[in-house]
Amino acid sequence: MKTLVLPLMLVAGISQAVPPGGLTSAPAFLDVNGDGLISEAERQAYTESRANANAQGQGGKLWDGNGDGTVDESERQVAVAELKKRMDTKVASLFEELAGDDGLLTLKEFSTLPRFDHRPPQVAANLFSHLDTDGDGVVTLEEFFKETGRGKPPAGETGHPR
User: Fold this and answer.
1) DSSP track, the chain
2) Residue 66's domain spans which residues?
3) Does the pLDDT at position 131 exceed 80?
4) Spatial separation of the C-alpha atoms in residues 150 and 153, rounded to whole Å
5) Is 152 part of any domain?
6) Using one digit for the tens of pLDDT, what is the confidence trace for 46-69?
7) What residues have CB less than 8 Å from 34, skipping those under 6 apart?
8) Where is region (Disordered) located (predicted)?
């Protein structure tokens, strides 16, 4: 289970990020959520898209939908939407694996994340409390997405009903 939790936090964007054009020399359009930073999740989604394009023989033409040699604003918007969709789907999948069969994340499950190793238990409890907006002791996929600034979970992935 611990091999799963680190990717969840990385993909969820709860990790260090860099400004567009910063250490990664990443283009600004990769900033899918518009926070001014390229998160690890945004970088991973882009890397996966590039790998898929290369496997399909598209190479550098991945986002140039009309083939004119440049990525215009409408093509950029399509690319951002596709990257966000891939990232959100991955986050939802990892969340549900961590939460288990009931699809509800408990403090105990949340506390197993490596970021809380060697930290007082209250650190995890405080963050969990922030995510648990209705105070029922569990975090749903919807709560997780909303409280991490992702909006709504991808269609078809809404967690398990209680």
Assistant:
1) -HHHHHHHHHHTT-S--B-TTSTT---GGG-TT-SSSB-HHHHHHHHHHHHHHHHTT-GGGSS-TT-SSS--HHHHHHHHHHHHHHHHHHHHHHHHHHH-TT--EEHHHHTTSGGGTTS-HHHHHHHHHHH-TT-SSEE-HHHHHHHTT--SPPTT------
2) 2-147
3) yes
4) 8
5) no
6) 777 767 665 555 555 667 777 777
7) none
8) 51-74
User: 162 lies in a domain?
Assistant: no
What's the pTM?
Answer: 0.59
Give how many domains the chain has, as a whole number: 1
Residue with tokens 């990790």: 15
- The radius of gyration of the chain from alpha carbons, rounded to an integer in Å, stands at 17
| 158 falls within a domain | no
Cβ neighbours of residue 53 closer than 8 Å, sequence gap 6 or more: 59, 61, 62
Amino acid at 72: D
pLDDT tens digits, one per residue of 17-52? 444 444 444 556 666 666 677 777 777 777 777 676
